[in-house]
Amino acid sequence: MVSDVMEITHPSINWNADNLDSEWTAFENHAKLMCQGPLADKSEKVACAYLLIWVGAQGREIFSTFELADEEKDKIEIYFKKFRDYAAPKKNQVFSRYVFQKETRTTQKVLTNT
Question: Per residue in 88-108, is it b (16+ CB within 10 Å) or e — as a string?
Answer without folding.
Answer: eebeeeeeeeeeeeeeeeeee
